[in-house]
Write a structure and sequence with these properties.
Radius of gyration: 15 Å
CATH superfamily: Gcn5-related N-acetyltransferase (GNAT)
CATH topology: Aminopeptidase
Number of helices: 5
Strand content: 25-35%
Oligomer: single chain
Shape: globular
Largest sheet: 4 strands, antiparallel
CATH architecture: 3-Layer(aba) Sandwich
Strand order of the largest sheet: 1-2-3-4
Distance between the termini: 27 Å
Number of domains: 1
Number of strands: 7
């Protein structure tokens, strides 16, 4: 298994895994499948190159992407974990932990003391996973952009020295 940061040449792999994630768990992300499916090739290339925003990592197994994660700094200077997804066949295999570790490492390398993420507490599998990764819930809530009827809660992981 390889966990690697994407660059422009990975845009088709990133598109493939992102669209698969949005079809698999549409209410877990801040963008809808319909919106992402209409991104231009140039937008996917820009995303993969991390030129304008978050960085993305892919989990590659036997030449095929089996998961993805993103990380980046928000407008409020928070380092956020975003877009976490692992294909159903690879869940429980450690892929998710390796992806989260990539984001934690990047945050630490870039001098951030914390990593934030948003998750619906009703998503028991994700919530439980993040708790096991050292994240804890804080009292911040907001509606999920793609599905405003779903409230997500912020979780926080503090960098360990």
């Amino acid at each position: 298994m390889e966990i690697r940061l994407t660059d422009e040449k990975d845009w088709m792999l990133l598109k493939q895994v992102r669209l698969a994630a949005l079809l698999d768990t549409p209410t877990a992300f801040g963008v809808s499948y319909q919106t992402a499916a209409h991104y231009s090739d140039e937008q996917w290339k820009e995303r993969a190159s991390s030129a304008a925003g978050p960085q993305f990592w892919l989990a590659i197994k036997e030449g095929k992407p089996v998961g993805m994660i993103g990380g980046g700094v928000s407008q409020t200077n928070r380092y956020n974990l975003i877009g976490m997804w692992v294909e159903p066949a690879a869940r429980g295999s450690g892929v998710a932990t390796e992806l989260v570790e990539a984001v934690k490492s990047r945050a630490k390398e870039n001098g951030h003391a914390c990593v934030f993420l948003d998750v619906s507490p009703d998503n028991a599998r994700a919530s439980s996973f993040y708790l096991k990764q050292g994240f804890s819930f804080i009292d911040e809530w907001e509606p999920l952009v793609s599905h405003p009827h779903i409230m997500v809660q912020t979780m926080l992981w503090a960098v360990q020295d």
